[in-house]
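Work through this protein:
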Amino acid sequence: MNILTNIHNLDVSTFYWLMARKNRQLMTRLSRVVSISADGPLYVVLALAFWTTGHQDWAWLLAMGFTLERILYLILKKGFKRNRPADILEDFTSFIRPSDQFSFPSGHTSGAFFMAYCVSEWFPGLSISLYSWAVMVGMSRIFLGVHFPTDTVMGALLGSICAALAFGVVA
């Protein structure tokens, strides 16, 4: 059995374990709110807030880094073409309708970790709150049934790497 099959099997087992939690319905309701916070428009608002308060360099870094993140995200999404849980698992339906067909990597999680990294660089006192929010975004995508755990782990890595690159190149 190859390593990808083993990872997929562990992923599916973990997914089912999370779906069987006693408070899953409450988690699903909360996940909708958390997930919406990472849809993207708030990132634009944040960049505009930086721009209008004299931090144009921060706004540019967000724009350039997020553009890199989205390009890599789309390349990975189209390259791996991993189906979503509802498309693979029998008798499972996700709780929301995903915006695209494939699940790997999680774009919501990638964007959240990108933003958490960037804003933490400028406001270190908010790091714990920002990274807690980013982790909750990743978990929300699993609880909503649109991602497997490794989709969110890779999203977190992608967002963090793109932020680190943006700071290394632009900052």
Q: What stands out?
A: The longest helix spans residues 56-80.
